[in-house]
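Human: We require from you a standard protein entry with sequence in single-letter code and fold as tokens, and nothing else.

Assistant:
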Amino acid sequence: MDDAQLAKRFGAIESQLRRISEHLGIDCPAFAGTTAETPSGEPPESAGLPAEVVELARAGHATQAISKLRALTGATLLEAKRAVDAL
């Protein structure tokens, strides 16, 4: 799966999570790459990724970021590694 496919997949997951959260009346976690949560000029490779994953990756904690992404999204190891490496 290439980076564009991963971004699309994570975007779909984020959208679904937001709809479920709204339906249940609970807060949805903040995601990087969305206009409301990030400053303008956010790199497109972080679009749809959970903010905490982006923060871990940018802080140099790639292994933790991969693990967190897998736990939050159910991505495979390869998918998560490619997404984190793209950051």
Observations:
- The CA atoms of residues 59 and 65 lie 10 Å apart.
- The chain is about 60% helix and 0% strand.
- Helices lie at 3-24, 51-58, 62-73, 77-86.
